[in-house]
Specification:
2 domains, binds zinc ion, alpha+beta, three-stranded mixed beta sheet, 16 strands
Protein backbone atom coordinates (compact mmCIF):
# COMPACT_ATOMS: atom_id res chain seq x y z
CA UNK A 1 0.00 0.00 0.00
CA UNK A 2 2.84 2.35 1.00
CA UNK A 3 4.59 1.58 -2.30
CA UNK A 4 1.47 2.56 -4.24
CA UNK A 5 1.33 5.88 -2.37
CA UNK A 6 5.04 6.56 -3.08
CA UNK A 7 4.60 5.77 -6.76
CA UNK A 8 1.53 7.99 -6.93
CA UNK A 9 3.47 10.92 -5.39
CA UNK A 10 6.42 10.38 -7.75
CA UNK A 11 4.07 10.20 -10.73
CA UNK A 12 2.26 13.34 -9.61
CA UNK A 13 5.54 15.27 -9.21
CA UNK A 14 6.80 14.09 -12.57
CA UNK A 15 3.58 15.19 -14.26
CA UNK A 16 3.31 18.59 -12.60
CA UNK A 17 6.99 19.60 -12.67
CA UNK A 18 8.84 17.27 -15.01
CA UNK A 19 6.57 17.48 -18.05
CA UNK A 20 6.32 21.31 -18.17
CA UNK A 21 10.10 21.56 -17.59
CA UNK A 22 10.73 19.14 -20.43
CA UNK A 23 8.43 21.13 -22.71
CA UNK A 24 10.35 24.34 -21.93
CA UNK A 25 13.71 22.64 -22.40
CA UNK A 26 12.99 20.78 -25.61
CA UNK A 27 10.34 23.01 -27.21
CA UNK A 28 12.69 24.06 -29.96
CA UNK A 29 13.23 20.41 -30.96
CA UNK A 30 9.54 19.75 -31.58
CA UNK A 31 8.94 19.87 -35.35
CA UNK A 32 6.92 22.83 -36.45
CA UNK A 33 4.70 21.57 -39.24
CA UNK A 34 2.80 24.82 -39.08
CA UNK A 35 5.94 26.83 -39.76
CA UNK A 36 6.60 25.65 -43.26
CA UNK A 37 4.84 28.60 -44.84
CA UNK A 38 6.06 31.10 -42.25
CA UNK A 39 8.65 33.85 -42.63
CA UNK A 40 11.99 32.73 -41.19
CA UNK A 41 14.40 35.12 -39.49
CA UNK A 42 18.15 34.49 -39.19
CA UNK A 43 18.96 35.62 -35.66
CA UNK A 44 22.54 36.03 -34.40
CA UNK A 45 22.68 35.16 -30.67
CA UNK A 46 25.15 37.65 -29.29
CA UNK A 47 25.66 35.70 -26.03
CA UNK A 48 26.69 32.44 -27.74
CA UNK A 49 27.66 33.45 -31.28
CA UNK A 50 25.17 30.96 -32.76
CA UNK A 51 23.04 31.76 -35.80
CA UNK A 52 19.49 30.46 -35.30
CA UNK A 53 16.69 30.45 -37.83
CA UNK A 54 13.24 30.87 -36.36
CA UNK A 55 9.71 31.78 -37.25
CA UNK A 56 9.13 35.54 -37.38
CA UNK A 57 6.27 35.45 -34.86
CA UNK A 58 8.32 33.31 -32.46
CA UNK A 59 11.14 35.87 -32.79
CA UNK A 60 8.70 38.72 -32.02
CA UNK A 61 7.52 36.92 -28.85
CA UNK A 62 11.11 36.76 -27.59
CA UNK A 63 11.63 40.46 -28.32
CA UNK A 64 8.46 41.60 -26.54
CA UNK A 65 9.43 39.46 -23.54
CA UNK A 66 12.91 41.02 -23.48
CA UNK A 67 12.02 44.61 -24.22
CA UNK A 68 8.79 45.32 -22.26
CA UNK A 69 7.74 44.32 -18.72
CA UNK A 70 5.32 41.40 -19.10
CA UNK A 71 3.04 42.91 -16.45
CA UNK A 72 2.21 45.80 -18.79
CA UNK A 73 -1.30 46.22 -20.23
CA UNK A 74 -2.17 43.88 -23.10
CA UNK A 75 -2.72 46.71 -25.61
CA UNK A 76 0.75 48.11 -24.89
CA UNK A 77 2.23 44.62 -25.40
CA UNK A 78 0.45 44.52 -28.78
CA UNK A 79 1.92 47.93 -29.67
CA UNK A 80 5.37 46.66 -28.67
CA UNK A 81 4.85 43.51 -30.76
CA UNK A 82 4.10 45.60 -33.86
CA UNK A 83 7.13 47.84 -33.20
CA UNK A 84 9.35 44.75 -32.77
CA UNK A 85 7.96 43.09 -35.93
CA UNK A 86 8.33 46.31 -37.92
CA UNK A 87 11.92 46.67 -36.74
CA UNK A 88 12.92 43.22 -37.98
CA UNK A 89 10.80 43.57 -41.14
CA UNK A 90 12.93 46.55 -42.18
CA UNK A 91 16.07 44.41 -41.88
CA UNK A 92 14.86 41.12 -43.38
CA UNK A 93 17.07 40.27 -46.35
CA UNK A 94 14.25 38.40 -48.10
CA UNK A 95 12.29 41.68 -48.02
CA UNK A 96 15.23 43.66 -49.44
CA UNK A 97 16.57 44.73 -46.04
CA UNK A 98 20.26 44.96 -45.17
CA UNK A 99 20.24 42.59 -42.18
CA UNK A 100 22.42 43.17 -39.12
CA UNK A 101 25.50 45.06 -40.31
CA UNK A 102 27.71 43.51 -37.60
CA UNK A 103 26.83 39.94 -38.50
CA UNK A 104 26.64 39.53 -42.29
CA UNK A 105 24.76 36.18 -42.25
CA UNK A 106 22.06 37.43 -39.88
CA UNK A 107 18.91 39.45 -40.42
CA UNK A 108 19.15 40.70 -36.88
CA UNK A 109 21.14 40.17 -33.65
CA UNK A 110 19.99 39.85 -30.04
CA UNK A 111 22.28 42.58 -28.71
CA UNK A 112 19.91 45.24 -27.34
CA UNK A 113 22.62 47.86 -27.83
CA UNK A 114 22.79 47.07 -31.57
CA UNK A 115 19.56 45.58 -32.96
CA UNK A 116 16.93 44.62 -30.38
CA UNK A 117 16.89 42.42 -27.29
CA UNK A 118 15.55 38.86 -27.51
CA UNK A 119 15.33 36.18 -24.83
CA UNK A 120 15.10 32.41 -25.19
CA UNK A 121 12.68 30.31 -23.14
CA UNK A 122 15.49 29.28 -20.77
CA UNK A 123 16.43 32.92 -20.23
CA UNK A 124 12.78 33.81 -19.62
CA UNK A 125 12.45 31.11 -16.95
CA UNK A 126 15.49 32.70 -15.26
CA UNK A 127 14.06 36.20 -15.63
CA UNK A 128 10.48 35.57 -14.53
CA UNK A 129 10.78 32.46 -12.40
CA UNK A 130 9.23 29.15 -13.22
CA UNK A 131 5.76 29.99 -11.86
CA UNK A 132 5.37 33.25 -13.79
CA UNK A 133 6.89 31.83 -16.95
CA UNK A 134 3.72 30.15 -18.25
CA UNK A 135 1.44 33.07 -17.37
CA UNK A 136 3.65 35.71 -18.96
CA UNK A 137 4.61 33.60 -21.96
CA UNK A 138 0.94 33.01 -22.75
CA UNK A 139 0.06 36.67 -22.21
CA UNK A 140 2.78 37.78 -24.62
CA UNK A 141 1.92 35.05 -27.15
CA UNK A 142 -1.69 36.32 -27.16
CA UNK A 143 -0.53 39.92 -27.79
CA UNK A 144 1.74 38.77 -30.64
CA UNK A 145 -0.90 36.47 -32.17
CA UNK A 146 -3.53 39.23 -32.04
CA UNK A 147 -1.30 41.43 -34.22
CA UNK A 148 0.12 38.64 -36.39
CA UNK A 149 1.90 39.96 -39.49
CA UNK A 150 1.03 43.63 -38.81
CA UNK A 151 3.76 46.23 -39.34
CA UNK A 152 3.95 50.02 -39.68
CA UNK A 153 4.74 51.90 -42.89
CA UNK A 154 5.09 55.53 -43.92
CA UNK A 155 4.60 56.46 -47.56
CA UNK A 156 4.63 52.76 -48.38
CA UNK A 157 8.04 52.06 -46.77
CA UNK A 158 8.63 50.11 -43.56
CA UNK A 159 9.40 52.57 -40.75
CA UNK A 160 12.25 52.47 -38.25
CA UNK A 161 10.10 52.08 -35.12
CA UNK A 162 12.47 53.35 -32.45
CA UNK A 163 11.23 53.14 -28.89
CA UNK A 164 12.39 54.02 -25.40
CA UNK A 165 11.28 53.42 -21.82
CA UNK A 166 9.77 56.71 -20.67
CA UNK A 167 9.38 60.03 -22.52
CA UNK A 168 8.59 62.05 -19.39
CA UNK A 169 5.42 63.41 -21.02
CA UNK A 170 6.81 64.60 -24.35
CA UNK A 171 8.81 62.78 -27.03
CA UNK A 172 11.61 64.32 -29.12
CA UNK A 173 11.89 65.20 -32.78
CA UNK A 174 14.40 62.80 -34.36
CA UNK A 175 16.64 65.66 -35.55
CA UNK A 176 16.98 67.00 -31.99
CA UNK A 177 18.60 63.73 -30.91
CA UNK A 178 20.26 62.27 -34.03
CA UNK A 179 20.45 65.25 -36.44
CA UNK A 180 18.29 63.45 -39.02
CA UNK A 181 14.73 64.59 -39.66
CA UNK A 182 12.42 61.59 -39.99
CA UNK A 183 8.82 62.61 -40.81
CA UNK A 184 7.07 60.08 -38.56
CA UNK A 185 9.36 60.67 -35.54
CA UNK A 186 7.83 63.95 -34.38
CA UNK A 187 7.61 65.32 -30.87
CA UNK A 188 4.23 64.50 -29.33
CA UNK A 189 2.84 65.39 -25.95
CA UNK A 190 0.79 63.26 -23.63
CA UNK A 191 0.86 63.56 -19.91
CA UNK A 192 0.54 59.83 -19.37
CA UNK A 193 3.70 59.05 -17.49
CA UNK A 194 3.56 61.28 -14.43
CA UNK A 195 4.35 59.13 -11.40
CA UNK A 196 5.68 56.16 -13.41
CA UNK A 197 9.16 54.73 -12.75
CA UNK A 198 11.98 56.81 -14.24
CA UNK A 199 9.73 59.83 -14.87
CA UNK A 200 12.21 61.88 -12.83
CA UNK A 201 15.59 60.82 -11.46
CA UNK A 202 18.11 62.77 -9.44
CA UNK A 203 21.89 62.26 -9.29
CA UNK A 204 24.65 63.94 -7.32
CA UNK A 205 28.30 63.92 -8.32
CA UNK A 206 31.31 65.07 -6.32
CA UNK A 207 33.90 67.27 -8.07
CA UNK A 208 36.57 64.58 -8.47
CA UNK A 209 34.06 61.98 -9.64
CA UNK A 210 32.60 64.39 -12.19
CA UNK A 211 36.04 65.36 -13.51
CA UNK A 212 37.20 61.79 -13.96
CA UNK A 213 33.93 60.52 -15.51
CA UNK A 214 33.73 63.40 -18.00
CA UNK A 215 37.49 63.87 -18.55
CA UNK A 216 37.33 67.60 -17.76
CA UNK A 217 38.87 70.08 -15.30
CA UNK A 218 36.35 71.98 -13.24
CA UNK A 219 38.14 73.60 -10.30
CA UNK A 220 41.54 75.17 -9.56
CA UNK A 221 43.99 73.22 -7.47
CA UNK A 222 47.18 74.41 -5.80
CA UNK A 223 49.83 72.07 -4.53
CA UNK A 224 52.42 72.81 -1.88
CA UNK A 225 54.76 70.84 0.31
CA UNK A 226 54.61 71.40 4.03
CA UNK A 227 56.89 69.99 6.68
CA UNK A 228 54.94 68.64 9.61
CA UNK A 229 56.81 66.97 12.48
CA UNK A 230 59.83 66.59 10.22
CA UNK A 231 57.86 64.88 7.42
CA UNK A 232 57.28 66.46 4.02
CA UNK A 233 53.61 66.25 3.15
CA UNK A 234 52.07 67.25 -0.17
CA UNK A 235 49.04 69.45 0.41
CA UNK A 236 46.48 69.90 -2.37
CA UNK A 237 44.04 72.76 -1.99
CA UNK A 238 40.99 72.25 -4.20
CA UNK A 239 38.64 75.06 -5.11
CA UNK A 240 34.86 74.73 -5.16
CA UNK A 241 32.50 74.53 -8.08
CA UNK A 242 31.16 77.94 -8.99
CA UNK A 243 27.90 78.93 -10.65
CA UNK A 244 29.63 79.18 -14.04
CA UNK A 245 31.48 75.83 -13.80
CA UNK A 246 28.64 74.16 -15.70
CA UNK A 247 26.40 75.81 -18.28
CA UNK A 248 23.78 74.35 -20.60
CA UNK A 249 24.45 76.05 -23.94
CA UNK A 250 21.70 74.63 -26.14
CA UNK A 251 18.62 72.48 -25.68
CA UNK A 252 15.69 71.42 -27.83
CA UNK A 253 12.33 73.05 -27.25
CA UNK A 254 11.34 69.94 -25.27
CA UNK A 255 14.34 70.12 -23.00
CA UNK A 256 16.74 67.61 -24.59
CA UNK A 257 20.26 68.98 -23.93
CA UNK A 258 22.21 69.45 -27.15
CA UNK A 259 25.35 71.12 -25.78
CA UNK A 260 26.66 71.66 -22.28
CA UNK A 261 29.90 73.26 -21.07
CA UNK A 262 31.86 71.77 -18.18
CA UNK A 263 34.71 74.15 -17.35
CA UNK A 264 36.41 74.74 -20.72
CA UNK A 265 35.06 71.57 -22.37
CA UNK A 266 31.87 71.46 -24.45
CA UNK A 267 30.07 68.10 -24.61
CA UNK A 268 26.83 66.97 -26.25
CA UNK A 269 23.87 65.97 -24.07
CA UNK A 270 24.01 62.32 -25.21
CA UNK A 271 27.77 62.21 -24.40
CA UNK A 272 27.11 63.45 -20.88
CA UNK A 273 24.22 61.01 -20.52
CA UNK A 274 26.42 58.11 -21.55
CA UNK A 275 29.48 59.04 -19.49
CA UNK A 276 27.54 59.78 -16.30
CA UNK A 277 25.05 56.94 -16.77
CA UNK A 278 22.03 59.27 -16.71
CA UNK A 279 18.51 58.09 -17.51
CA UNK A 280 18.12 60.63 -20.30
CA UNK A 281 19.70 63.67 -21.92
CA UNK A 282 16.80 65.84 -20.83
CA UNK A 283 18.27 67.24 -17.63
CA UNK A 284 18.80 70.30 -15.50
CA UNK A 285 21.88 71.06 -13.40
CA UNK A 286 22.25 72.65 -10.01
CA UNK A 287 25.72 73.63 -8.81
CA UNK A 288 26.47 73.30 -5.11
CA UNK A 289 29.93 74.14 -3.76
CA UNK A 290 31.29 70.60 -3.72
CA UNK A 291 28.83 68.70 -5.87
CA UNK A 292 26.63 68.89 -8.93
CA UNK A 293 22.99 67.82 -8.79
CA UNK A 294 21.55 66.59 -12.08
CA UNK A 295 17.83 65.94 -12.47
CA UNK A 296 16.65 63.97 -15.49
CA UNK A 297 13.18 63.65 -16.97
CA UNK A 298 12.26 60.39 -18.75
CA UNK A 299 14.34 57.32 -19.54
CA UNK A 300 16.01 56.63 -22.90
CA UNK A 301 16.55 58.70 -26.03
CA UNK A 302 12.99 60.02 -26.00
CA UNK A 303 12.22 59.38 -29.71
CA UNK A 304 9.26 57.33 -30.99
CA UNK A 305 7.18 55.02 -28.79
CA UNK A 306 7.37 55.51 -25.03
CA UNK A 307 6.83 52.13 -23.37
CA UNK A 308 5.57 53.53 -20.05
CA UNK A 309 3.47 56.00 -22.03
CA UNK A 310 1.99 53.12 -24.05
CA UNK A 311 1.15 51.24 -20.86
CA UNK A 312 -0.49 54.33 -19.35
CA UNK A 313 -2.44 55.04 -22.56
CA UNK A 314 -3.65 51.43 -22.62
CA UNK A 315 -4.76 51.65 -18.99
CA UNK A 316 -6.84 54.69 -19.97
CA UNK A 317 -8.68 52.58 -22.57
CA UNK A 318 -6.65 53.24 -25.73
CA UNK A 319 -6.03 50.28 -28.03
CA UNK A 320 -2.74 49.46 -29.74
CA UNK A 321 -3.73 51.36 -32.88
CA UNK A 322 -4.34 54.59 -30.94
CA UNK A 323 -1.05 54.13 -29.06
CA UNK A 324 1.02 53.61 -32.22
CA UNK A 325 -0.70 56.45 -34.12
CA UNK A 326 0.06 58.74 -31.17
CA UNK A 327 3.78 57.98 -31.05
CA UNK A 328 4.49 57.50 -34.78
CA UNK A 329 3.09 60.46 -36.68
CA UNK A 330 1.19 59.73 -39.90
CA UNK A 331 2.01 56.01 -40.16
CA UNK A 332 -0.16 53.30 -41.74
CA UNK A 333 -0.78 49.71 -40.70
CA UNK A 334 0.28 47.13 -43.26
CA UNK A 335 0.65 43.35 -43.42
CA UNK A 336 4.01 41.69 -43.92
CA UNK A 337 3.85 39.15 -46.72
ZN1 LIG B 1 22.72 43.70 -34.80
Amino acid sequence: MRRVVMWSIALYLAATIGVPLAVVKFWHLIPYWHRHDSIQVAVYMHETGALDRMDLEEYVRGVVAAEMPAGFHQESLKAQAIAARTYVAGRLKRQGGKGCDRHPDADICTDPAHCQGWLSDDELVDKWGYLNYFTYKRKIAEAVDATKGIILTYDGAVIDPVYHANSGGVTENSEDVWSVRIPYLRSVRGDFELGTPHYRNSYSFGVLELESMLGVDLVDRSESVEVIDGHEIKVVVQGNLSADSVEILDRSENGHVRLVRFGEAVLTGPEVRQRLGLSSARFTVEVLSDQLIITTIGYGHGVGLSQYGANAMASLGNDYRAILLHYYTGVQFARLI
